[in-house]
Task: structure prediction
Amino acid sequence: MKAGTRNVVRGTHVRPAAAGDLVAGLRVLRSAGVIGGTRPDRLLRSLGRIRRYGFSAGGALASAAVKTPDRIAVVDDEGSFTYRRLDEDAAALAAYLWNTGSREGTRIGVLMRNHRGYHLVSGAVARIGADLVLLNTEASAHQLADVVAEQGLTLLIADGEFLERLGEIKDAPPVLQAWTTPDHRPQGLARTGGSGGDGDSPGPTGLAKAIELGCTGAPLPGRPRRGRLIFLTSGTTGTPKGAQRPEPKNWMPIAALLSRIPFREGERILVAAPLFHGWGWANYQIGLSLGSTLVLQRRFRAENSLEAARENQAGAMVVVPTMLARMVALPDTDRPDLPALRILASSGSALTTSLVRETRRRFGDVLHNFYGATEVAWATIAQPHEMAAHPATAGRPPLGTTLLLLDEAGHRVPDGEVGRVFVGNSMVFEGYTRPGADKERHGDLVCTGDLGHIGPEGLLFIDGRTDDMIVSGGENVYPREVEDLLAGEDGVAEVAVVGADDPEFRKRLVAYIVRTDDGAGAALTQESVQSLVRSHLACFCVPRDVVFLPCLPRNAMGKVVPRLLPPPQPQEAVPPVDAGAPADESR
Result:
């Protein structure tokens, strides 16, 4: 494949992208309402702002403030705010940042939960040409210290609840406080109210005070440098790495996602997924580009999010699988009707087939499964009709996306066979910010680190991580299929299956299970779990150990953190079912 080409893959058969991809993208944008429906004078002014600030989130905010100034941009825990108001405040914050030394090329870290602070910060950063580093709210003080040093942050903008954690960092940069609760002063985002740090008591300056001070203006760049957006990898194996993402050069990245997830202009979108993660951020930026009203909550609770979706007549909800599972698990009496809901989009970790089926039963055919990675942005998206027929699928590549499945030698694997997933699109990351770190590449394509195969109708199915697959007694074993089987069993609330060292077979499977609080959960034993797997899968898929836990250790995106799972206790090998059974059947 020549560098710079863009293809769409059906299985292992690559067809060249149509010469009309740009035209197709414009049609998608028109259908969603991004193009058209705006007064000519406002359209010209909004395009001028995009030209000035780029296709970043900040540029989208500035553009929407011209097209639909009086539309509600965000509803969060403190109220609702228009695009005009947030754009004005973002301009004032930019002036304050510029006056206090944040200039083009400096790096600003953000440690915030979901609220309108993201609108203010992204709008301000776009105006001064700084880089934005999104920090994980679940990161430890040690991890934050490493990231602050590695990224060379010159300023931190953080919610009050994180100040104590940041206080443990030696030589930490200055801090602006973004959000305040009664236990965390100074004031947060409101123009009035609150105290401390803004003159009443020692502490970091609040954003409200910064906005007030910034209203005096500053000589901001007429056309600022295009800042970089830096995401942190999930960090399930240690200190997360920074992945530098290019700014979109046009509307096509948004058209790609809209080609598979049909958001509409002005629609209310509840984004429960963390905005510091690529999945939450992607939907945040799409919402700004569509002039949508984003419904944000600082903390997720299933019943609260569903009630907020009902109250705001949300047409779409954006979640991670653990959030979706909690919504589905609510009793019918606690789950409000959502007549406006058209889209329930999930990403961040794998969906089990049982969760897909239960979501369809509870919410209807609205579920979209987004498969991607920090390094590649998006790879494939499964639409509701595809998930109805094939609940385990990750879907198809959206517009302008390349997908290849390759073996260890870099050759394409036949349909149905497992290969390493490589992806190319216009938003593939530019590389890690940590020296010496990189992802494996194949020309313009980047390896996601996953294994997958092309199944029925040319759909992609993920079999697990490349480092999850184990070789046990000479057999390739994929924990994902064991997890999927156990997740659908009565009595299993959560499950994770991982590989562990084994002196006889090199590796063996270990199943970690959280039981439900009922008779089915109480009845689960190691023997019953092994018997279930043995009756449905090959003998080498049977976990040697089954560990019951009160909960699974997960990160903010709902991914299980393997390094935090306790090691299984030594025990005698499970005897074979009969004298003729293979000796390794209980691996």
Q: What stands out?
A: The longest strand covers residues 492-502. Residues 83-99 form the longest helix (17 residues). Residues 470-564 form a domain with the GMP Synthetase; Chain A, domain 3 fold (CATH 3.30.300.30). The chain has a mean pLDDT of 85.
